Every structure is written in structure tokens, then in C-alpha cells.
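Bumping with the actual sequence this time:
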Amino acid sequence: MAKRLVFVLILLITNLLGFSQNPTQDSIAPKKPSPTPPQPIDSTFVTYNAYPFDSIFLNASKVVDTLTFHAAEFDYLQHGNTIYSTLSNTGMAHKSMRFNYLHQAGFDMTLPAFSALMQNESNMLSYQSVLPYSEIRYLMTAGDLEQHFHVRFGRQVTPRLLISFAFDTDYAPATFINNKTINNAFWVNAKYITQSERYGVGAYWYRNKLEMGENGGIVNDENYISHTESDNSVIPVNLNNGTNFIISSGIGFEQYFNLLSKKTVKIKKETSPIEIDSVLPLPATNDSLTIDTLALDSLAIDTLSLDSIKSTITQEVVQETKDRKFTLGRICHSFSYLNNKLYYNETSPSAAFYRPFDTLLNTTKTTDTTLVRAIRNTLKWSSLGYKKYNDDIPFYVYAGVNHGFYTVKHFDYLENETTLSRNYNQLSVNGGIIVNLFKSTRITGQGELVTLGYQIGDFDLKGQWKQFLGTTAKNFGFATFNAEIKRQSANWFEESYTSNHFRWENDFKASTYLTFDLRYNYKSYCIGLKQTTVSNLIYFGTDARPTQSDDMFSIREAYLSFYQNLWRFEFEGFASLQKSSNEEVMHLPLLLGQLRIGYSQPIFHKVATLHPSITVRYFTKYYADAYMPATRTFYLQNEVEIGNFPFIDLAISLKVKKAHIFFVYSNMFLLTGNYNSFIAPHYPMRDSKIFIGINWRLFN
């Protein structure tokens, strides 16, 4: 009953906000992007940018995807051109099967195993719409009452104030023992720009709360593969009482100030006297020529005979304004406070699952606690002024400094309390440049260097060359070459950690990463080659503890992605072919990919559209990394192979005006009797289910 009341209240608040809107044109809403959106839209035009102000001024706004083709995408892990290894249920830990390195330069606040679930300042959006924009999605299953409720909202409160927020709640009861998830996320941001556009300020707040049952996977894979027992809830699992509880939150603001005003004013002035020898016409009301009356009074003459007199007049210049042709740029400042709370609880710490690892500090109960807090301040100068660009700024440069103060705390089993563990200070400098040449070449570079404190000497340098091919009349796409070199020291977690099941102190060398990525885009097609060379890789070995490889090795990848509509058919997919030169420390599937095919059929005299689609995901067999719940990390294993199984989802969507009603039958290949559908070692992909949902966009 309480959940229904919350649902009704959110709907009422959203609609009240929408109907109270004054649909005045937004003075800072970006113009419709000049490039054609990569995919057509089929509803009211709504755009968005990333949260930072620079995104509004530097990049073309993106178009909200309203395609029926994507209406049935309900899983976070279905977005993006990759396949994730995960844990039998929605909203669990995951790892991309394509090689990527998620850790950022400097002190790392990310949680890589939950990156697709986390809402934060890096992925929150700012909607730009003259009318209030609302999107509501509700999804459920008939059998186990799995429910998902998502809200997106953006509105223009005043012509210069924008507010956007999102709320997600996901409840997925377990089909296997101790595999339930209850995840909630909320973010809100606001932006205000003064009428002169000289000053702008934005603020945000977000909070993620993840609660997950951790069962360590099933004990014997054959119990599931043989399907002698159709009820998954009776299949034995490794852990019956393990739980992970994560709260990740943050608050912050940013502001900018243009060093010069937007306009320049010509000051009113008078010229030196002018003598004329002609008949003076009667002046008009706003004539800029006036007769010097003192000179006329000193002459006792008939004013009608002015043609015989030289009269003295002055010329008055009216005030006028002009846009500046140059700017001194702007000063930007941002502040953020971030807080990660990580809890792992286990009432049976002596279970066989934990025995290969460290000896227990407490044999009766595990109450691992890790608290990580960050305070960051960034000050930078950039050459941006008042003008907004659609990815075509002729020249842009910035330079800045960032200071961070960080605190890490662990639970002390000897003192039986959470005690202060470590404090870190870090100072880094950063800068970047964008140059557009000849309307066809775009060169971008950016870098960051840690100059003082923790991880001193670490750096991250990125560069891009983007070359447009052909002319406006005959466009042949564009080629992009990306290069990145990064030096990354071990992060706080890899260096030192203390818990009931794991303890380590490490002194690792810094790792280096060199990446080259060459790709070609034509319309909605992309093909590319990528190579990453790594030395001194830090990874989690077969003992689920961090270790380091002294070798240098490479990961090479060829990839493609595409979208194509043909008559009423739509096709979308991606594929990746990748190979590691050191398969002892880097396990990857040789091939992975996804293909989705849809068909649109207007019905009821074109009042509605019926859209069936089928999605197939596949990856070849490989030794996927195993998952350790106690540390929330994936680690190397050489015993179990997964893969060579097609994951097939069938969806039917019905579009009626702005609403999409959809039905999804997931993992339908299980109907063939093949149950070797593992998505991670000892974790089968979720069973076949029927999902029923609605996605409704409102414009008030």
C-alpha cells in the first residue's frame, strides 16, 4: 500500500509542476543542433546536455530518443555497445566483456563493478525544453512481482532557470536463494544564468542506495544445466546470508564569470563646430543637427534670410552598442562533496566459500565497513565567452588546478568500531585545447598531472584528430584517431585494505596505458581498430587479491556498430573481435556482439503503431572473471568457461500517441532445453520471464 501511495504522489507532483509552467521561450535553451540527429525522432523535440556548463556552450545538444525501436529497453546493462558479465538478477555487480579501464587519474571514487547502476555528476542530464518534459516508465513481471519505476523530468521555471531530476527504483526478488536486489537512485540539478549571461551558477545533489543479496553463485552448475529441478529457489548456493549495502551520494555546485561584459558602448560625444554656407532646413524632431542659438541671438537679423549668413552648428552622436569581437574568457569554479558508504554483512563467515582466503578476525559475524569521503575544489580559466557552439568552435583553450582532500575509514575488529584509517591530499593541474581548421578538421587535446600529494607524478594525456571527408553536398562521413597515454598508481583500495575475510598491504609500481583508436563513421555506421598496450598491470588474481604483472602486453580489438532502417524494418547491432597477447592475466571473449531487428506496422488507421522486435546477444567461450562479494570485485579464474549461448529477447511494443506499451519475453532460448546460459562463473542468466511495461512521455 505504501508503494502505491508513493507512486501516486510522484505522479501528482510531476503533473502539478508541469501545468504550472509558463511556456516562455528560454533565453539559454540551445538552438536545434545543426547536425542531423543520428536517428530520427518521432515525438516532440526535446534536447539535453550533460550537467557541466561547458557542455551547453561547447557541444550540440542531444535529442531525447523517442524511437519505438528502443521502447522496450528496460535493463541498465542493455545500453551501450557491450555485453556485461553479471549475477543472475537485475541490478547486480557487472563487468564489461570488452576491455576497458574505468579508473580515472587521481584519487578514485568510482565503483567499477556498479558503474552502470550509479547516478552521479558525470552522467546526470540537463533537459532543455520550452514545455515541461516528463517521462514515466513502469515495468513489472506477473510471477514474482519484480517492479521497476523510473521518472525523468525537466522544466523551465523562469526564462533563465532550468531544473531537471530523475528518480529510479528497482525491486527484483530472487529466483535463486539470496539474490534479491532493492536499488534506488535520485538526482536533481538546477542552472541559472543572469539576463546579461555574464554569470551562471548550477548545483546538484544525488544519492544511490543499493541493497543486494550475495549468494556467491550456485554450488554445482550441473544442478542448473541438467534442469532436473525447475524451481531455482531450491538449488544450493554458496552463501545464504551475505549482503552488500552501498550508499553513494554527492552534492556540489559550479559557477562561471565572464571577464568582459557582453556588449561594448560608444560614449555620447560632440564634434567640433562646423560652418555651413547654405540655406538651413527646418530640423526634424530627432534631427542630429541643432542651431547654435547663442550665435543667432548675437546677430540682429531676420531669420528668414539665413541663406546669407554662415551659421555655426554642432553634431551630436547617439549612443550605440556592439557585440564584442574578442573576449578575455571566463573564470570557472566548482566544489563537490562525495561520500561512499560500503557495507558487507555475513552471519555465517565460516562458510566454505571463504575458507581459501584470509583467516577470520571474527568467526561469528562479518560487519565490514568502508567509508570514503572527498572534498574537491577546481578553479580554471577558459577562453569561452557568450556564444554557444555546436561542436564547431574555432578555438578553445582552458587551464586549471584541482585540489582534493580524501578520507578512508575501515571497521576495526579489534576496537569494534569504525576508526580513522588514512587521509590524502592531492593537487593536480589540467588543461585542454580545441582547434577547428578549414571547416573539416578538428583537433582536441587535454591532460591532467598530479603535482603534489598522493599519487604524485600520475598523468593522463588524451588527443584526437577528427577529419570530415567530402563536402556539404557530398558527405562521406568522418575519420577519427584517438590517442591516450596514462600513468596510474595503485588506488587506495589496491594499496591497503582491511576486512574480516581479506587484508593486504601492497607497494605496487605505477601502471601505464597507451591506447590508439582509429575509426570511420558514415551516417549510422562505424568501424574501427583499437590497441591498448599495458605495462605493470594491477589486477585481482586467482586468490581474489590485488597483484601486479611485470610484463608488457597488448589488447587488440576490431569493432563495428550500425543502425539502418529499410522500409518498415529497423536493424541495429554491434560486434567486437578482441585478443590479448597475455591471456594469463587478461581473459576476454574472442567475439561478442548483439543484433536487434524490428518491424513497424501502423494499425487502427495509423492512430497506433505495432512494433515487434527480437534481440540476440552472443559471446564465444572464455574464462570469465569470477565475483567476490566480500570485496565487490571481479577476479581471475581458470576453472570455468562460459559462453557460446545465444541470449534472445522477444519484444512487442504498441505506440499510442506519446505512450509506449510493451511486452518482453526474456532469454527465450531456454525453451530449446539448453540451460547452459551462464553470464558469469556459477551465475546463470535470469530465467525466461514476461515483462509488461509502459513508457509515457508528457509535455504540459
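The C-alpha cells above came from a reply further down the thread. The helical segments are 2-19, 53-58, 221-225, 293-297, 492-495.
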